[in-house]
Automatic annotation (TrEMBL):
The keyword Transmembrane helix appears for this protein: yes
Name of the molecule in the record: G5 domain-containing protein
Pfam families with a match to the protein in the record: 3D, DUF348, G5
Protein source organism: Clostridium intestinale DSM 6191
GO cellular component: outer membrane
One GO MF term attached to the UniProt entry: hydrolase activity, hydrolyzing O-glycosyl compounds
Residues covered by the G5 domain: 150-230
InterPro entries: 3D_dom, DUF348, G5_dom, Resuscitation_pf_RpfB, RlpA-like_sf
TM ranges: 21-38
An individual GO BP term: peptidoglycan turnover
Classification via PANTHER family: CELL WALL-BINDING PROTEIN YOCH, RESUSCITATION-PROMOTING FACTOR RPFB
Length: 341
């Protein structure tokens, strides 16, 4: 069958010039038809500007090359370069623009066609840690000559040992002269562990704050005894000292007679021992041992209706001695309160 077709074809197209003309016409028609069928019209959109191009290539890459449309290394094309094209397809090209990124101590000149900062960083393999900072928001759209700074933020927890100061405790000591002091226990410092959160930006410390404390050693207080025992010299040479707890200026009158004191004792005058005086118990408690200037040692054993506030009444053995004493303003020294002697 095939062989018969070949022989028929040769008989028809081998008979002179007329046959050759017919053959050329057929071939030309076929070529024209083939070329027409290969012709494709597409739309090229470059940064939102459109142009219509005609191509006889079957792929995106071929269409662009045949129309002298060049691509930069970072330009983005959609569809892919090797994809097939059809009439009225749209080829989108986004031209890369120059931007400047400062990161890790370097200034990078970058060409990018990404839409925003976040996509650009990913495309350029610039990774961000959780706390890193951007000088502009990650969703900022990319524009030509944009400048971006990436600040590396690092946080460290540092444990420091700090000293704890001891306290000084002062205690009154009535067995020591007033104005004197004695250290009875030395103080020692304690220690505490302080956890500090330190924040660094590009390796430079910008903030630190205490986030925890733990005492590892308690301090020991320093104890100081301070003398409270006051004294006066009973003689001009100062050989005889009178130690007292309180000094009062009182108005002293005198009384004599028989009877019983407010504390149930018999009043007495004993220049070389203890005599009796009447006091206001609100000022000088009954049973207090005192020294009255010009009178001597005495015990507050009695009270009186006229003895109020800083008034006292000293007991004398006779009325004559009372008149001799009269009323005087003298110093009274509390030697010991009830229960202290």
């Amino acid at each position: 069958m095939v062989e018969k077709f070949k022989q028929h074809f040769k008989r028809v197209f081998s008979n002179g010039p007329k046959a050759k003309i017919v053959l050329c016409s057929i071939v030309t028609s076929v070529l024209i038809l083939t070329i027409y069928n290969m012709r494709t019209t597409v739309i090229v959109r470059i940064d939102n500007e459109e142009q219509r191009i005609v191509t006889y290539k079957g792929t995106v890459k071929g269409a662009l090359q045949s129309n002298d449309i060049t691509l930069g290394e970072k330009d983005k094309v959609s569809p892919q370069l090797e994809d097939r094209i059809n009439d009225d397809d749209i080829i989108s090209i986004k031209r890369a623009v120059p931007i400047e990124v400062y990161v890790d101590g370097e200034t990078l000149e970058i060409q990018t066609a990404e839409s925003n900062i976040e996509d650009m960083l990913e495309a350029e393999n610039i990774t961000l840690n959780e706390d890193d900072k951007l000088s502009i928001s990650a969703d900022t759209l990319i524009t030509e000559d944009l400048k971006l700074k990436v600040t590396r933020v690092e946080t460290k927890d540092i444990v420091e040992t700090q000293a704890l100061d001891y306290q000084t405790v002062v205690k009154n000591d009535d067995s020591m002269d007033k104005g004197m002091s004695k250290v009875v226990q030395e103080g020692t410092q304690g220690e505490k562990e302080v956890t500090v959160k330190v924040i660094y930006e590009d390796g430079v410390e910008v903030e630190r704050k205490v986030v925890g404390e733990k005492i590892t050693k308690e301090p020991t207080s320093k104890v100081v005894h301070q003398g409270t025992l006051s004294y006066v010299a009973l003689s001009r040479g100062g050989d005889s000292k009178l130690y007292y707890k309180q000094a009062l200026s009182v108005k002293a009158s005198a009384y004599a007679g028989d009877g019983i004191t407010a504390t149930g004792t018999v009043p007495k005058r004993n220049p070389s021992g203890l005599s009796t005086i009447a006091v206001d118990p609100r000022v000088i408690p009954l049973g207090t041992k005192v020294y009255v200037e010009g009178y001597g040692y005495a015990v507050a054993e009695d009270t009186g209706g006229a003895i109020k506030n800083n008034k006292i009444d000293i007991f004398m053995n006779s009325t004559r001695e009372c008149y001799q004493w009269g009323v005087r303003t003298v110093n009274l020294y509390v030697v010991a309160y009830p229960g202290q002697w």
